[in-house]
Amino acid sequence: MTLDTVKHADETPDVEQPWQELGLKEDEYARIREILGRRPTGAELAMYSVMWSEHCSYKSSKVHLKQFGEKTPANDAMLVGIGENAGVVDVGQGYAVTFKVESHNHPSYIEPYQGAATGVGGIVRDILAMGARPVAVVDPLRFGAADHPDTKRVLPGVVAGIGGYGNCLGLPNIGGEVVFDSCYQGNPLVNAGCIGVMKHEDIHLAKASGPGNKVILYGARTGGDGIGGVSVLASETFDDTKPTKRPAVQVGDPFQEKLLIECTLEIFKEKLVAGIQDLGGAGLSCATSELASAGSGGMRVELDRVHLRDATLSPEEILMSESQERMCAIVEPEHVDRFLEICEKWDVIAVVIGEVTEGERLEIFWHGEQIVDVPPRSVAHEGPTYHRPYARPEWQDALQADDANKLPRPQTGEELKDQVLKLVSSPNQASKAWITDQYDRFVQGNTVLAQPEDAGMVRIDEETNLGVAMATDGNGRYAKLDPYTGAQLALAEAYRNVAASGAKPLAISDCLNFGSPEDPAVMWQFAEATRGLADGCLQLGTPVTGGNVSLYNQTGEVAIHPTPVVAVLGVIDDVNRRTPIAFAEEGQLLYLLGDTREEFGGSAWSEVIHQHLGGLPPAVDLDREKLLGEILISASRDGMIDAAHDLSDGGLVQAVVESCLRGGTGARLVVPDGLDAFTFLFSESAGRAVVAVPRSEELRFTDMCGARGLPATRIGVVDGEEIDVQGEFSIALSELRTAHEATIPALLA
Amino acid sequence: MARVVVDVMLKPEILDPQGQAVQRALPRLGFAGIADVRQGKRFELEVEGPVDEAALARIHEMAETFLANTVIEDFVVKVESEVSAEVQS
């Protein structure tokens, strides 16, 4: 086996290289040769191919993502914006919070348990790398049809993987979503979010400056994880006898990650690092090139010093390995001994693999011979940028013309009752307790709200009761009908959920799940959704702090519904002032806030009763969302409401059923003047919430709504052991509970 | 009845956290000289009827689809001697 050194590459310009198998396009390969002024070595080709991949370079999406920077609302809370491992916002009292959502879709389809587990591990390390202690995770999930046999393979594995990894780390899982739709059958979406907390002065950034500083790789040993692609390079170019094609699957070790977290936090505390980055996708290729290009540019790495789990790995494979639970730190020489001492104390392997150098080259050596000599920016940041063609698909007009408002509606009270039971027992509207009960939601003792509440909430200061809340939402059906509006509805719903819990929304992270960017229709959906999200964030005053794009989510030619998932982070001064969803006190008055219109396009009702998707999604009014949010927060702070539930998929009746079951009480509802019972119960108009108001607060509350111009309609009272819609029907709570809670266990347990 | 054994091991490239934990524990307990540990699973199947080609094919299918997760694990099927013989020994 000959080593493909820089010198060797210089001397053999005409060697055939497997750039195509590595996913590079012809012009991209030509550009690499142009940058280097020679053919790349095998190791260089490996680095460029993985760093210029869609996953790492955002080459199809970045022309659209830059709107998030251009349309950033003025927001004093932003401490660190897009571009770092995760964004950071100020939440007051000297605390800063970092949060982010990422996808691990494809690995979770291949190997559900490990795919989902390493998804959690990866996002936790992103948060850790900012200097923060991870305090909670959330998991927005989407699967194929609930009754499809493959869902029974994928879902339990994913749920167990999330629970297994998160529970071992001792991190509460405080929220997320579970959605079923046959469009995700061959391509489930496993998104994972994490929240971390630190003091302002503890923020750490990913950069390598100061020549002479040491580069330390620490954490797990490097093995052949996740390098399926690059095995082409190792086997075909250099050693035809190599036996196995390396698997693309990575296996996580949460106990190793727990050591890594504690070890890293102790290192932060002693201020021993000048820069730090976690190793995720693209492993060392990514960490070295990004650290170097964010610093002064020069770095020299002795790759043979890396601790290996498998001694047969080639240098290319080591550069590409996605072995989990590893971090890379830049450390001043005088701190190296102490750094290694702390690692040893935590039983974490650490080794100096190189140093920051003068100049602007990233140089990597293998047993003394140079195998990489590149400008790091060209690897990390100067990858290709594509202006992919996009076009509104031909079918969009027909889809929007297929108006859901024209579907046959229930005519009698008996029919309404029957459809309510069908709705609340349908897989998407049914209780997800069977899933969320597998996660530890209360470990660490700071969880204030968790599923099935509107938002998850954790206390971050035990003295002052300062807390943060997070909600994640996304509705692929709405986005399919209109991607611009659909993205804004996802934003509006998450915003509303956070406000309904009593927390003030501050900033967002997003995970944009779409089909192939090479399909102009998908690219149009992506362009519209990002535009909608950027415009929406500007209007709501909640900046995008970072996030993730996942493309090529499709089975064959068929793309998933465009699925922008939005996570909104909020802050609450005192978690004792939070608002739960439960209607717990008999006699309290129920008020519907906002306007209800005939809006059934993309609704849960149209799906459950008519298996229909068509028409337009509900209209968005972000100024109204903002006003509703302010009212919910004020009412929560001043003790005017005891419960609040946002209205979204399934409409008012879904929210009332959930709140009643949560509180163990019934409700008597009256259809307000000007609305028919069906629209009242099932419409999915945005910008609405239902609240429970103690009688003593009624006047104060309605005065506040009146003064600020928010429609508030009294619709009933918390009472009894059934849900009764006057003059239409009533259903016993016990019957609703059975309908709502039996579905998921029957399908999956 | 005959016994068929299915040994399931993580593929060599796959991380084995349990094996590593055992390996780290060994020197602490005074057992020196072990460079690496990999931990697997062993299934002992008591087969009704003859262990012929059809039975082995069925066991292969069982191993491939259920006993082993072939995305990350390999398996080996071995026929052992008569169970009764083992009980006597």
UniProtKB/TrEMBL annotation, chain A:
<keyword id="KW-0460">Magnesium</keyword>
<keyword id="KW-0963">Cytoplasm</keyword>
<feature type="active site" description="Proton acceptor">
    <location>
        <position position="104"/>
    </location>
</feature>
<feature type="binding site">
    <location>
        <begin position="103"/>
        <end position="106"/>
    </location>
    <ligand>
        <name>substrate</name>
    </ligand>
</feature>
<feature type="binding site">
    <location>
        <position position="58"/>
    </location>
    <ligand>
        <name>ATP</name>
    </ligand>
</feature>
<dbReference type="InterPro" id="IPR036921">
    <property type="entry name" value="PurM-like_N_sf"/>
</dbReference>
<keyword id="KW-0658">Purine biosynthesis</keyword>
<feature type="domain" description="Phosphoribosylformylglycinamidine synthase linker">
    <location>
        <begin position="20"/>
        <end position="59"/>
    </location>
</feature>
<dbReference type="InterPro" id="IPR041609">
    <property type="entry name" value="PurL_linker"/>
</dbReference>
<comment type="similarity">
    <text>Belongs to the FGAMS family.</text>
</comment>
<dbReference type="InterPro" id="IPR036676">
    <property type="entry name" value="PurM-like_C_sf"/>
</dbReference>
<keyword id="KW-0067">ATP-binding</keyword>
<protein>
    <recommendedName>
        <fullName>Phosphoribosylformylglycinamidine synthase subunit PurL</fullName>
        <ecNumber>6.3.5.3</ecNumber>
    </recommendedName>
</protein>
<feature type="binding site">
    <location>
        <position position="126"/>
    </location>
    <ligand>
        <name>Mg(2+) 2</name>
    </ligand>
</feature>
<feature type="domain" description="PurM-like C-terminal">
    <location>
        <begin position="585"/>
        <end position="722"/>
    </location>
</feature>
<feature type="active site">
    <location>
        <position position="55"/>
    </location>
</feature>
<feature type="domain" description="PurM-like C-terminal">
    <location>
        <begin position="210"/>
        <end position="366"/>
    </location>
</feature>
<keyword id="KW-0436">Ligase</keyword>
<feature type="binding site">
    <location>
        <position position="278"/>
    </location>
    <ligand>
        <name>Mg(2+) 2</name>
    </ligand>
</feature>
<feature type="binding site">
    <location>
        <position position="125"/>
    </location>
    <ligand>
        <name>substrate</name>
    </ligand>
</feature>
<feature type="domain" description="PurM-like N-terminal">
    <location>
        <begin position="453"/>
        <end position="572"/>
    </location>
</feature>
<dbReference type="InterPro" id="IPR010918">
    <property type="entry name" value="PurM-like_C_dom"/>
</dbReference>
<dbReference type="Pfam" id="PF18072">
    <property type="entry name" value="FGAR-AT_linker"/>
</dbReference>
<feature type="binding site">
    <location>
        <position position="250"/>
    </location>
    <ligand>
        <name>substrate</name>
    </ligand>
</feature>
<feature type="binding site">
    <location>
        <position position="102"/>
    </location>
    <ligand>
        <name>Mg(2+) 1</name>
    </ligand>
</feature>
<comment type="function">
    <text>Part of the phosphoribosylformylglycinamidine synthase complex involved in the purines biosynthetic pathway. Catalyzes the ATP-dependent conversion of formylglycinamide ribonucleotide (FGAR) and glutamine to yield formylglycinamidine ribonucleotide (FGAM) and glutamate. The FGAM synthase complex is composed of three subunits. PurQ produces an ammonia molecule by converting glutamine to glutamate. PurL transfers the ammonia molecule to FGAR to form FGAM in an ATP-dependent manner.</text>
</comment>
<dbReference type="InterPro" id="IPR016188">
    <property type="entry name" value="PurM-like_N"/>
</dbReference>
<feature type="binding site">
    <location>
        <position position="548"/>
    </location>
    <ligand>
        <name>Mg(2+) 1</name>
    </ligand>
</feature>
<feature type="binding site">
    <location>
        <begin position="322"/>
        <end position="324"/>
    </location>
    <ligand>
        <name>substrate</name>
    </ligand>
</feature>
<dbReference type="Pfam" id="PF02769">
    <property type="entry name" value="AIRS_C"/>
</dbReference>
<feature type="binding site">
    <location>
        <position position="550"/>
    </location>
    <ligand>
        <name>substrate</name>
    </ligand>
</feature>
<feature type="domain" description="PurM-like N-terminal">
    <location>
        <begin position="83"/>
        <end position="198"/>
    </location>
</feature>
<keyword id="KW-0479">Metal-binding</keyword>
<dbReference type="Pfam" id="PF00586">
    <property type="entry name" value="AIRS"/>
</dbReference>
<dbReference type="GO" id="GO:0004642">
    <property type="term" value="F:phosphoribosylformylglycinamidine synthase activity"/>
</dbReference>
<keyword id="KW-0547">Nucleotide-binding</keyword>
<dbReference type="InterPro" id="IPR010074">
    <property type="entry name" value="PRibForGlyAmidine_synth_PurL"/>
</dbReference>
<feature type="binding site">
    <location>
        <position position="547"/>
    </location>
    <ligand>
        <name>ATP</name>
    </ligand>
</feature>
<comment type="subunit">
    <text>Monomer. Part of the FGAM synthase complex composed of 1 PurL, 1 PurQ and 2 PurS subunits.</text>
</comment>
<feature type="binding site">
    <location>
        <position position="510"/>
    </location>
    <ligand>
        <name>ATP</name>
    </ligand>
</feature>
<comment type="pathway">
    <text>Purine metabolism; IMP biosynthesis via de novo pathway; 5-amino-1-(5-phospho-D-ribosyl)imidazole from N(2)-formyl-N(1)-(5-phospho-D-ribosyl)glycinamide: step 1/2.</text>
</comment>
<feature type="binding site">
    <location>
        <position position="100"/>
    </location>
    <ligand>
        <name>ATP</name>
    </ligand>
</feature>
